[in-house]
Design a protein that fits this description.
The complex is a heterodimer. Helices cover 77% and strands 0% of the residues of chain A. Chain A contains seven helices and no strands. Chain B contains four helices and two strands. In chain B, a hairpin with a 5-residue loop joins strand 1 and strand 2. Classes of the chains: A mainly alpha, B alpha+beta.
């Protein structure tokens, strides 16, 4: 409950959280999770609809921070780290690159969250959704143009699916870390 | 999106539930009543979103009750339908009855 309350914008949600607590005594754990996720999504949706320009600004901040991270650290790594000969199918390299992207996206989420503390996770969600949509569209496009179910193609598809989960996930983790309002509960 | 005194189907359902529950209407009881009627799980946050919209439009009022331990020290938010809300429900009913009429396949005479 504390985790979800921490994500919420500074909205009047006390009565609603009280209702979920009261009713969860006679309901399943799944019902409770469903209510808590719906709480974050519905409240965030209201905040986004109420502040469309702020939402666009948050997305722009996310993109700008990611590009800046890429420029600074990406170029530094390319100039200073000797990578040696790297085959395209090297799983360890792939993981390192994904980790590099995830760290950048977490930094974006952190920056958005930090600059929109009053809105909670609501301003971080649109950028995370954008990342999920981009990742999933990449996955679907690759799945539709798949030539064969070879080991390489299957791993490539699995990688794209992992990206479409880990990228928005990283944005949300960064945003959650930035918000840090545990005193809401 | 409903404008003016027009009601959406969810708005109408919640106003009817407020009328049925009277003084006992708050998030949990409203959601239970809707679930019993529709036989579907209801998100309390969606119920509150509709209730807040109804309060903004003057169809309902809200009042905080006493905090209880069962609710982690949080107060209940009681909702009540207003005169404007009752008139909107009545008007919606009349519109539906007019549409129902002369439709034998729906039991209309």
């Amino acid at each position: 409950m504390r985790f979800f309350a921490r994500l919420l914008p500074s909205h009047d949600v006390d009565a609603l959280i009280g209702d979920i607590l009261e009713e969860s005594h006679r309901r399943s754990r799944i019902w409770r999770w469903y209510q808590l996720v719906a709480l974050v999504v519905v409240i965030s949706g209201r905040v986004v609809r109420a502040h469309p320009m702020l939402t666009l600004r948050a997305i722009a901040i996310g993109v700008a921070v990611f590009l800046a991270y890429f420029q600074v650290f990406g170029i530094w790594i390319l100039n200073n780290v000797r990578l040696g000969p790297l085959p395209a199918s090297n799983a360890a390299l792939w993981l390192l690159v994904q980790l590099f992207f995830c760290l950048g996206l977490a930094a974006s989420g952190w920056a958005i969250g930090r600059l929109h503390l009053a809105q909670g996770i609501a301003m971080v969600l649109p950028f995370a959704i954008l990342m999920a949509v981009l990742g999933l569209s990449d996955f679907v496009r690759s799945a539709l143009t798949l030539h064969s179910w070879s080991m390489f193609e299957t791993f490539k598809l699995a990688g794209l699916l992992a990206k479409s989960i880990s990228f928005p996930g990283s944005v949300l983790v960064g945003g959650y870390w930035a918000i840090g309002r545990v005193d809401t509960v | 999106m409903a404008t003016g005194s027009a009601l959406g189907s969810t708005d109408l359902m919640i106003l009817l539930v407020l009328m049925r529950l009277g003084d006992e209407a708050y998030g949990v009881t409203i959601a239970r009543e809707i679930e019993e009627t529709t036989r579907r799980t209801v998100a309390l946050a969606s119920v509150y979103a509709t209730l807040d919209r109804l309060v903004e439009r003057g169809f309902a009022t809200s009042e905080l009750g006493e905090p209880t331990a069962e609710r982690g020290g949080r107060a209940k938010k009681h909702f009540r339908i207003t005169g404007k809300g009752v008139r909107a429900v009545r008007s919606a009913k009349q519109s539906f009855v007019r549409l129902w009429k002369d439709l034998p396949e729906l039991g209309g005479a």
